[in-house]
Write a structure and sequence with these properties.
Belongs to the glycerophosphoryl diester phosphodiesterase family. The chain is an alpha/beta fold. The protein has 13 helices and 13 strands.
C-alpha cells in the first residue's frame, strides 16, 4: 500500500510528461450513473479511476455542495417538488441569465431532501434509470468516499474539487475562498503532498490560494472567452508560451479543453497535436484535458461509430491519442474506457 500511495502522489505533484496519464473521473463515472452521486464515484473507483471530481457550489448556510452548477433543476428533482415551487427564480450568473432553482436559496437540510437525476437523459438512458435514488453530497462526504476507497483498495484515490463561480458567490455574500481553506484545513488537505488537485476557471482565486495552501492547483482553460474575473485576459492569451509562464507562477496544472490540444478542422476531424503540451511542460506545468465522453456527439468525426449522436464511438482510441500527445491526465465520464486507452500506451 505504501508503494501505491507514493506512486499516486508522484503522479499528482511530480514532474511533467508522464507515460501513463492519470484518469480523473469527471463527476464520477457520470456516463453510467447520475453525476456527483456516491454510485457514480464508487463505480469510477471500481473502474480504475485515480481521482474523483466534485464540482463545488455553496448552500444558503455556507456548506460546500457537490453539484455541476448552483442551478440544480437539471441534476435534481427540485422542479417536481411542490414545497419548493416558490424558489424558482431568474439570476445572472457570470453574465448569463439563468432561470431555475439555486443552491444558495436552500439550506443544507433542504438540499439533502432532493434526489439526483441524469443531466443528459437523451444520451444516457441507462444512467437515467438510476434517477431518484441518490441524495446530494457535500464536499466532505466526497473526500470520505475517496479515503474509504483508498483504505479498501490499497491505492490512493485523490479528489479534484472545482470551485464554481467564486466571483458570483462572493457578490452575494458567500465568499468561497476563506471557507474552502478552512474546509481543507479541517480535512488535512492543505499540504503540497496531499491527494488533491484544486481547479477553477477564474484566475484570482487560484492566485490567492497558491499563497495560502500547498495543494496542487489547476487553471481551467476554455476553448473561447476568458476568465470572468479578468475581463482584460483571454484564454487564448493564457496558452501562449508567455501566458503559460505566468500561469506557472501560481498553478501546477494547465487544464485546457481537449480541442486546444488536438484541434479539429471544419469537418470535425482531429488535427494536431499542436505545441500546447510541450509549451506547458516547458513552463513547468502538467497538462490535464477535459472532457472525454464516449458518445459520438462529443467525439471527433474519425472516432464516431454508427449513425446516432448518442451511440458510442472510439473513446478509448481518442484517449490513447491524448496519451500519445503527452498529456499528464484526462477528465472523463467513462473511466473504464479511458483506462483501456491508457493501457494501449504503456
Amino acid at each position: 500500500m505504501i508503494r501505491a500511495i507514493v506512486t499516486a502522489l508522484a503522479l499528482l505533484v511530480g514532474t511533467p510528461a508522464m507515460a501513463q496519464p492519470l484518469i480523473i473521473a469527471h463527476r464520477g463515472a457520470s456516463g453510467e450513473r447520475p453525476e456527483h452521486t456516491r454510485a457514480a464515484y464508487e463505480l469510477a473507483i471500481q473502474q480504475g479511476a485515480d481521482v474523483i471530481e466534485p464540482d463545488l457550489v455553496l448552500s444558503k448556510d455556507g456548506v460546500f455542495i457537490d453539484r455541476h452548477e448552483n442551478e440544480i433543476s437539471g441534476t435534481t428533482d427540485v422542479a417536481e417538488r411542490p414545497e419548493f415551487a416558490d424558489r424558482k427564480t431568474t439570476k445572472t450568473i457570470d453574465g448569463t441569465e439563468v432561470t431555475g432553482w439555486f443552491t444558495e436559496d436552500f439550506t443544507l437540510a433542504e438540499l439533502k431532501t432532493l434526489r439526483a437525476k441524469e443531466r443528459l437523459p437523451a444520451f444516457r438512458p441507462g444512467s437515467a434509470a438510476y434517477d431518484g435514488r441518490e441524495p446530494i453530497l457535500t464536499f466532505d462526504e466526497v473526500v470520505a468516499i475517496a479515503r474509504e476507497a483508498s483504505a479498501r483498495t490499497g491505492r490512493t484515490i485523490a479528489v479534484a474539487p472545482e470551485l464554481k463561480h467564486p466571483t458570483y458567490f462572493a457578490g452575494i455574500g458567500l465568499p468561497m475562498e476563506d471557507a474552502f481553506v478552512a474546509e481543507l484545513r479541517r480535512l488535512d488537505l492543505t499540504g503540497a503532498d496531499v491527494p488533491i488537485i484544486v481547479q477553477c476557471f477564474e484566475v484570482g482565486p487560484l492566485e490567492r490560494l497558491s499563497r495560502r495552501i500547498g495543494a496542487p492547483l489547476a487553471q481551467l482553460i476554455a476553448s473561447e472567452g476568458g476568465p470572468v474575473d479578468r475581463p482584460d485576459l483571454t484564454y487564448a492569451q493564457m496558452i501562449t508560451p508567455e501566458g503559460l509562464k505566468v500561469m506557472a507562477a501560481y498553478a501546477d496544472w494547465a487544464a485546457p479543453d481537449m480541442t486546444l490540444v488536438l484541434p479539429r478542422d471544419a469537418d470535425g476531424r482531429t488535427i494536431g497535436p499542436n505545441a500546447l503540451v510541450a509549451d506547458a511542460h516547458a513552463a513547468g506545468l502538467k497538462v490535464v484535458i477535459w472532457t472525454l465522453r464516449a458518445e459520438n456527439a462529443f467525439l471527433p468525426a474519425e472516432r464516431r461509430r454508427g449513425e446516432g449522436f448518442a451511440e458510442h464511438g472510439d473513446m478509448a482510441g481518442y484517449a490513447a491519442a491524448f496519451a500519445e500527445a503527452g498529456v499528464d491526465a484526462v477528465f472523463t465520464d467513462f473511466p473504464a474506457l479511458a483506462r483501456s486507452g491508457r493501457s494501449a500506451n504503456p
